[in-house]
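Data deposition worksheet. Section B asks for the primary sequence of the deposited chain exactly as it was used as input, without tags or linkers unless they were present during the calculation. Section C holds the resulting structure in token form. Section D is free text for depositor observations; keep each observation to a single sentence. Incomplete worksheets are returned to the depositor.
Section A, Depositor: J.P.
Section B:
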Amino acid sequence: MTTASITSTPIAKPFRGGLVLPAVDTDTLQHTIRDLPPGNTSVLPLQQHLGDAAEPIVAIGDQVSVGQPLAKSNSPFAATIHASSAGQVVNVRWADTRFGQRQIAIVINHDFNDPDKTVDPLPPLTIKSDDQVIRQRIADCGVVGHGGARF
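Section C:
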């Protein structure tokens, strides 16, 4: 494997103080990207966005398909949470997140029965679609920015 050379370019700071971090993490350059086999369980926190946590719309014991909505919220900042794999909902419990917080999460045991099946596609939007219809579609699809804002 060849390694890339990294050069730092000075970044103009618009304010006094703060940190200027390198744009590339040199600690990870020597590692290759690899696919991991799917695990047997998914733990999906119900607050993957700014604002209030989504409320479960599935129950323990339900079978879920890839892409199926699991939790929704009427909050303008919350996003719909979808199943990332097929399986059975086995628990709704508190779980630790990568940020060190505890949140309610849906736990799915994977059954791998429909890895190629997805939910039915939605009808296409047009340039003449109502603004509210477009906003609702984005909310229903669970589109969230990197910082947690729902779009």
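Section D:
DSSP finds one helix and seven strands in the chain.
The first helix runs from residue 131 to 141.
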